[in-house]
């Protein structure tokens, strides 16, 4: 399988380092640390390869949470640097590091490179798993279960790409618009649901079902999305793994906000209340210190109190909010209110929503606001702004007082130069 030009050939798994020099230069190379792809992509390594793909996704996801939050209205820049100003002010140049940076402790969160790597890792091992036979794998390792997992994480990489990128490419293919990217995501989730069902893998099945529901919502198939979302149990919460030492596995929100003061919670998410009391869904803390950007105070999100705090990838609350959106679209206001309240009931200190006498537009406004608060810093806000057609805040053309100039019009990450220049199937 040929990967996108920006994707490193192979998967970073454990101590393996894969290199591909012969396509770059005709000069003879001798790297004692080189491991051939043929020796890594073998059935005995199947579980390890899937674990590596999952790790690649989790790294990409945590960067996407912060990067998408910074581009729109969840986070604000706190560093006195031009590149960071451009990120927050929605005027990213197409050669900026969002397109090329990897999973380090980045001042500007990487988006395209990390999501492409995650997608490529998962799709590559998925292709190998489909070629291998059950008997090829070690005893006790289920090939179908690994197929379900690889397909699920490939799907999530693609759905985030569809929500966050203006356009993208897969495997040096043509430039794809979001609808086509979501279609690719759906095909991965379809496969994952089939395989997870066959082996009774409830955890992977629920993650794939909710990923497919999210994808269907983006494809404007709300009723089908609700069918999948309604199957998600109240206890479901799929999270990232974490590590206090490995940067790629640390909670990137804590790292970039609390520890490094690269970003701060945006003013629009501070001091939010519900029925006159502080809203626990968006609890934040003033750290009483400033970043290096002029006059920017550091506010942190209480939901991520340490480097090892897990981040939710998908959970029951999201599923019920998808159900609410479908009920609203179908004209079932009471059903929409009930789903909203199913989420609120899971939160201590959040009162039920009284939908008595409310219009469809009022219920819709409540749903959008509840998504904004409930899914705060979980990678949904940028996609919501695009799907609902919400206005940018601050509006384009508003003076950007921190770094000069004005806010731009970007509501997605543009296809980066690294893809456009190196991909022969995309015009420059």
Task: Write a concise synopsis of the structure shown.
With 428 residues, the chain is mostly helical.
How does this model look, in words?
The chain is mainly alpha-helical. Among the domains are: about 200 residues, Alpha Horseshoe (Serine Threonine Protein Phosphatase 5, Tetratricopeptide repeat), CATH 1.25.40; about 80 residues, no CATH class. A two-stranded antiparallel ribbon has the order 1-3. Strands 2-8 form a two-stranded antiparallel ribbon. β6 and β7 form a beta hairpin. The chain is globular, with a radius of gyration of 22 Å.
Quote the distance from N terminus to C terminus.
Answer: 24 Å
Please count the beta strands (DSSP E, at least 2 residues each): 8
CATH top level of one domain is Mainly Alpha
Following the backbone from N to C, one meets helices and strands in this order, namely: HHEHHHHHHEHEEEEEEHHHHH
Structural class of the secondary elements?
Answer: mainly alpha
Radius of gyration: 22 Å
Ranges with pLDDT <50 over ≥5 residues? 1-29
Tell me the CATH architecture of one domain: Alpha Horseshoe
Tell me the strand percentage band: 5-15%
Write the SSE topology.
Layout: H1 37-40, H2 46-71, E1 75-77, H3 82-88, H4 112-131, H5 143-164, H6 178-198, H7 202-218, H8 222-229, E2 237-239, H9 252-259, E3 263-265, E4 273-274, E5 277-278, E6 284-290, E7 297-301, E8 312-315, H10 316-329, H11 333-344, H12 360-374, H13 381-388, H14 417-422
Antiparallel strand pairs: 1-3, 2-8, 4-5, 6-7
């Amino acid at each position: 399988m040929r990967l996108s030009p920006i994707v490193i050939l192979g998967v970073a798994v454990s101590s393996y380092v894969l290199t591909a020099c012969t396509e770059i230069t005709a000069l003879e190379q001798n790297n004692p640390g080189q491991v051939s792809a043929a020796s890594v992509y073998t059935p005995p390594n199947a579980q390890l390869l899937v674990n590596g793909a999952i790790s690649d996704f989790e790294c990409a996801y945590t960067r996407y949470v912060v990067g998408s939050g910074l581009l729109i209205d969840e986070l604000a820049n706190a560093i006195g640097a031009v590149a960071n100003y451009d990120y927050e002010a929605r005027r990213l140049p197409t050669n900026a590091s969002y397109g090329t940076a990897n999973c380090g402790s980045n001042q500007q969160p990487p988006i395209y490179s990390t999501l492409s790597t995650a997608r490529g890792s998962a799709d590559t091992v998925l292709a190998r798993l489909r070629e291998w036979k059950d008997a090829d794998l070690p005893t006790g390792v289920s090939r179908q279960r690994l197929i379900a997992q690889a397909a699920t994480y490939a799907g999530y990489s693609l759905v985030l790409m569809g929500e966050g990128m203006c356009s993208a490419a897969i495997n040096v293919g043509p430039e794809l618009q979001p609808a086509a990217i979501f279609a690719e995501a759906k095909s991965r989730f379809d496969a994952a649901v089939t395989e997870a069902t066959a082996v009774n893998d409830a955890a992977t099945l629920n993650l794939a079902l909710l990923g497919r529901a999210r994808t269907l919502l983006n494809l404007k198939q709300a009723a089908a999305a609700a069918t999948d979302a309604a199957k998600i149990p109240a206890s479901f919460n799929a999270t990232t793994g974490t590590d206090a030492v490995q940067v790629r596995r640390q909670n990137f929100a804590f790292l970039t906000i609390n520890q490094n003061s690269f970003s701060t919670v945006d003013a629009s998410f501070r001091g939010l209340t519900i029925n006159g009391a502080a809203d626990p869904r968006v609890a934040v803390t003033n750290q009483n210190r400033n970043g290096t950007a002029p006059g920017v105070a550091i506010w942190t999100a209480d939901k991520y109190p340490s480097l090892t705090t897990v981040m939710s990838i998908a959970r029951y609350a999201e599923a019920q909010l998808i159900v609410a959106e479908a009920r609203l679209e179908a004209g079932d206001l009471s059903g929409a209110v009930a789903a909203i309240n199913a989420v609120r009931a899971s939160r201590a200190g959040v009162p039920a929503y009284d939908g008595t006498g409310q219009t469809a537009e009022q219920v819709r406004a409540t749903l959008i606001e509840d998504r904004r608060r409930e899914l705060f810093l979980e990678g949904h806000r940028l996609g919501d702004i695009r799907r609902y057609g919400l206005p940018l805040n601050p509006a384009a053309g508003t003076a950007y007082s921190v770094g000069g100039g004005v806010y731009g019009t970007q509501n997605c990450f543009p296809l980066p130069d690294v893809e456009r220049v190196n991909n022969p199937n995309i015009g420059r």
